[in-house]
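Problem 12. The chain below contains 319 residues. Write out its predicted structure in token notation.
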Amino acid sequence: MPKGEQQLIQRIRSMAGRNASVITGIGDDAAVLRVPPKHDLLVTTDFSIEGVHFRREWHSAAIVGHRCLTRGLSDIAAMGGEPRAAFLSLALAEDVPRKWIDQFVKGLLGLAREFRVSLAGGDTAQAAQGIQADIVVVGSVPKGTAVLRSGAKAGEQIYVTGSLGGSAAALERLRKSLPLGVERSPHFHPVPRIEVGRWLRRHKIASAMIDVSDGLSTDLAHICKESDVGAEIEVDAIPRAACGNGKQQVELAFALNGGDDYELLFTASKPAPKQIAGVPVTRIGRITAAKGMWLIGPKQRRQKLVAQGWEHFTHRVNG
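Solution.
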């Protein structure tokens, strides 16, 4: 652990870069950001808490940093936005090694550089125990073009990027001390779908959108609630992640409720491409005027789809 807060801040400042959106970053009372003319500002915040979102025996410091920023970038992607700057508030127990902090920051900044996002400020504090990191990401979209959760309409198709359930399957194997195999990549190095979100917004394809962070069932329920609609999902259409030796798919429950995939779930009135920015896009169902969510199985058998993804204060922590 660094000898004091100022030393810690200086170490982080020396590692952080700056882009054209950040006029004044770390080192002043507040950051000064410049957003392009005629743009709306996007702001999102997400916690990463030891014992809830990660465990040090499972996740290296660099991976925790990477995943921490992914959470914020994924929210910006879901709005079709362009990320501009990030702010990190970090609370650390006295026994957290300096090496862990350095690797955490390196993991976070590695992803930040990939998406040209500057770490423009934040806060540090001593925690009674463990590690708590809060990431704030600021982005922008041309005025009035942000893709919201509330735009879905009856008759529209439902799409999802990538594959689902890989992160949940990896966590399950970690809990059981089993080899991770091919599940390792989606859980440990999730990729925020910034380019896909921007493309969908620019081409006016997505009418409503959300990132799959809490699980398909729960995130779809958010769209249905905000849009005042229902949904039908085709079981066989859901793109499930590979598991084990790569020849099998994860369990349906992981794909429906697992979360932590950071893919994009969106609705559209016209067909979406099968691939955007190199990322597969799959149609999995449709929006209905009648409320409620349904799974459509073989021979058109219908089963009620209940939101059973992640919700704080109702789930146990990881492990």
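Discussion. The chain has a mean pLDDT of 89. Students who got a different answer should revisit the alignment rule from Section 12.3.
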